[in-house]
Design a protein that fits this description.
Blueprint (H helix, E strand, L loop, with lengths): L7 E4 L3 H12 L4 E4 L6 H9 L3 E3 L5 H5 L3 E4 L8 H8 L4 E3 H6 L6 E6 L4 H14 L4 E5 L5 H7 L4 E5 L2 H5 L8 E4 L14 H8 L11 E5 L3 H9 L5 E6 L10 E5 L2 E6 L2 E6 L8 H16 L4 H10 L8 E6 L2 E5 L6 H9 L5 E5 L12 H7 E7 L4 H7 L5 E5 L2 H11 L5 E4 L12 H13 L2
Parallel strand pairs: 1-2, 1-4, 2-3, 4-5, 6-8, 6-9, 7-8, 9-10, 10-11, 11-12, 16-20, 17-18, 17-20, 18-19
Antiparallel strand pairs: 12-13, 13-14, 15-16
Amino acid sequence: MERVYNNIVVLGAGESGNGAAILARRKGYAVFVSDNGPIKPHYKQELEEEGIGYEENGHTADRIMAADLVIKSPGIPEKVQLIKNLRAAGKEIISEIEWAYRFKGDSRIVAITGSNGKSTTTSLLYYLLHNAGLDVSMVGNIGISFAKQVALSPTAWYVIEVSSFQLDDITSFRAEIGVLLNITPDHLDRYEYKFENYIKSKFRIAAFQTENDMLILNIDDPEITRYLAHNHIKPKIISITMSEQNLPQDEGAFMKDEDMHIKYEGDDMKLSIHDLALKGKHNQYNSMAAGISARAAGIRKEKIRESFSTFEGLEHRLEFVATVRGVDFINDSKGTNLNSVWFALESMKQPVVLILGGQDKGNDYNEIMDLVQEKVRAIVCMGIDNAPIHKAFENVIKHIVDTQSAKDAVNAAYSLAEKGDVVLLSPGCASFDLFKNYEDRGTQFKQAVREL
């Protein structure tokens, strides 16, 4: 039964917060938006067009504490005093995906989470479902928010990229098909620097699933298998793995020789890895997850096969830019943690000049040390403080140079590269020291390559 709220407050006026506010307004609720920082002009315009009141550059505590429902944007941590006060007062606090879920009607949901590969898998699955003619939208951490889609243009299917932050504040959200790709340390500052808290958060994707729902898990991931050994979860588990021997059920996806197998409801669908548009071992996991999800959504094998071969991949995620005088340039600006860099290096077949650096989140560069020693010819640092990179690799890599712009980094990398090499931008860090965001960093990188 739909609950009645007289006073809804949305904290944060980004894509998620605005979506939640618009949905509340369209459903007839009184709603107010409060952001501790400045609100971007296009988001202000959205709120004004919907007749939604808002404040920026600070919170009016009394007004917020008077709310009977608070929808919290995922970027706001629990340690903020206002959140502590709301919790202490017993206020109902939910995330935007929880709010949207309450109004999704009979629509079906595939929710995808993991430390790496979420965006690629979400985009690929959306492409598979859309190409097969389903009424589907791609929402969440990628593109438009779930709530805004529900408010403005609801669809029969939602493919949602969800982060651990969004899952932290769900109270009923459930996906008919959930996907958990992998778990590696990330965002630990939000989880009291305890990896086990982050793992629990990722598994909240299954918190409200039933026995009739499905959870697709990468059972090659040690943290996932460790969690399963000590915790019971309700949904039917379908596994993806590199080895058929690891497959615990008759259903699931695995790699054998140079083929990907998708086994579902007694049928074994086989695809050559050479027919997959996405290359690299990490993308085999992403493709297996998307493929088994598509089969579970009722998509025919022929459509899946066709879409796998034509999918073009994501901008800023292992995106081929150009070949300049025998040197390939690849933009992996979305690689903002070291696990992403590991995956990127693992998929490289040529010697690499690696562009690394940015706003460091306390990286332990030993995570990529073996691959750097094996594959990297030179490192070009692109950040304000490059000392941690120098310290980590000074005894391993002969050429380490510092740059402070995309253009300088590209020029330096090009001068260090030899014919047949690849220049890989995979920073392993956030972009906020020199760029607006990872998209801006990737765009500037591509522009600099084209100017060579």
